[in-house]
Design goal:
By secondary structure, the protein is of the alpha/beta class. The protein has helices at about 10-15, 20-40, 85-90, 135-140, 160-165, 200-210, 255-270, 285-300, 315-330, 340-355, 380-385, 395-400, 425-440; strands spanning about 45, 55-60, 95-100, 150-155, 170, 190-195, 240-245, 270-275, 360-365, 400-410, 415-420. The chain has one domain (about 5-445): Amidase signature (AS) enzymes (Alpha-Beta Complex), CATH 3.90.1300. An eleven-stranded mixed sheet has the order 1-3-2-4-6-5-10-11-9-7-8, sandwiched between helices.
């Protein structure tokens, strides 16, 4: 038995059956981390003295007495005096922290190249990016360095690296999981989610982590509970919407072939494919980078070197860029022209999705316009980097649940299929994703390390 290949559900069962001990489980993962992390730089900090089911936690989620740096020099050596709500809920399920994963600084980036502690590398090709900002968490699960990982997703920071690393990356509906203890980037967009080896694991983790939290006023009151856990092997009766806007200019043609093949597979499984339109998609990136940056400029103002953090001049280039953009957008004389207009576009995007969901039950398309790109390829071109999120940002603006599941390969590099559903309908996203992954073999493929 290869312990590190087991899913969360399989690991729990194996422990119950006494096939191995918790100590043996943790040692198997620690041995693999020791062997491979020097290649990937997926972990910034590794815990060697924990027992429980080992999880990798993105370094923007507060873990009591375990370093939490947001991959920034500003928080170097910071030890939080408290746990994020999700960490307490996972601890109650015998989950332990095997390590904190690398990420773009303060979760700002699409490639995993913006960490103050060095870039994370893609396990499928060490010369390519893993995607960001949850780069270390995605790489860790692709390389079987933990049973599962937590990440955060503001505009695609779970789904994009999941696509580029060939893992399952799930962003729940906005507010479905408490954000208390997540270092705030853009508070109206941030959401904690998961990287897992199976969709069933993502569903179980959502049940564990969701539910009301008085420490997060935007947290949904009801905990998620799957209404039907009977496994389906088809998509009969499901209407699947395919947006025309997601297959236009900018989409790599080889990626388009993979996604269209995945859609054909869904049709063969019984789904009815419906062409839909999301007409305000073209404005999403511009509106997102104004709203997100405006909230960044407010949230990161606390790191003034007096109350929190070290000197502000230790921010990296990308946080500085977003702070300046957001400060400008909120400035007197510019607010109405920028932030107010972006907020109106956000409403139009939400309305687009609402209309679309009168025609379909789920929406599918690409996660990323390209497979993983070469390290350094987009570093000097922020706009090209921002456009990597063109398909993930609209759903974030509307607060929708979304998942990336492996759908195929382009020249040996993984490509993710994006599945979305209505706000608070996380179950449909998970059910569709599970049928697709169970009826294909792409999620079982692993990089050769």
């Amino acid at each position: 038995m290869q312990i590190t290949k087991l899913s969360l559900i399989e690991t729990k069962q194996a422990l119950l059956d006494k096939q191995f001990s918790e100590a043996e489980l943790n040692q198997a993962y620690l041995d693999r981390i020791e062997k491979l992390n020097s290649k990937l730089n997926a972990f910034l900090h590794v815990q060697t003295n924990k027992v429980g089911i080992p999880a990798a936690i993105k370094d923007v989620i507060s873990t009591k007495d375990i370093p939490t740096t947001a991959a920034s020099k500003i928080l170097e050596n910071y030890l939080p005096p408290f746990n994020a709500t999700v960490m307490n809920r996972l601890a109650a399920q015998n989950i332990s922290v095997i390590g904190k994963t690398n990420c773009d600084e303060f979760a700002m980036g699409s490639s995993g190249e913006n960490s103050a502690y060095g870039k994370t590398l893609n396990p499928w090709d060490l010369g390519r990016v893993p995607g960001g900002s949850s780069s270390g968490s995605a790489a860790a699960i692709a390389a079987d360095l933990a049973v599962f990982a937590l990440g955060s997703d503001t505009g695609g920071s779970i789904r994009l690296p999941a696509s580029l690393c060939g893992t399952i990356g799930f962003k729940p509906s906005y507010g479905r999981v408490s954000r208390y203890g997540l270092l705030s980037m853009a508070s109206s967009l941030d959401q904690i989610g998961t990287f897992t080896k199976t969709v069933a694991d993502a569903r179980l983790l959502l049940e564990w982590m969701s539910g009301t939290d008085n420490l997060d006023s935007n947290c949904l009151q009801e905990a998620f509970k799957a209404s039907n856990t009977d496994k389906k092997d088809n998509l009969k009766g499901l209407r699947v919407g395919v947006p025309t806007e997601y297959f236009g200019q900018g989409l790599d043609q080889e990626v388009a072939k993979v996604i269209k093949s995945a859609i054909s597979k869904m049709e063969s499984l019984g789904a009815k494919i419906v062409e839909i339109s999301l007409p305000h998609t073209e404005y999403a990136i511009a509106a997102y980078y104004i709203i997100m940056a405006s909230e960044v400029s407010s949230n990161l103002a606390r790191f003034d070197g007096i109350r929190f953090g070290k000197q502000r001049d230790q921010f990296g280039a990308e946080p500085k860029r977003r702070i300046m953009l957001g400060t400008f957008s909120l400035a007197s004389g510019y607010y109405d022209d920028y932030y107010a207009q972006a907020a109106k576009v956000r409403t139009l995007i939400r309305q687009d999705f609402a209309r679309a969901f009168t025609q379909c039950d789920a929406i599918v398309g690409p996660v990323s316009p390209t497979p993983a790109w070469q390290i350094g390829e987009k570093v000097t071109d922020p706009l090209a980097m921002y456009l990597s999120d063109v398909y993930t940002v609209p759903a974030s603006m509307a607060g929708l649940p979304g998942i990336s599941v492996p759908a195929g390969f382009v020249q040996g590099l993984p490509v993710g299929l994006h599945v979305l559903s209505k706000y608070a309908d996380d179950e449909t996203v998970l059910n569709v994703a599970e049928v697709f992954t169970e009826q294909t073999n792409f999620a079982k493929e692993k990089p050769d390390l």
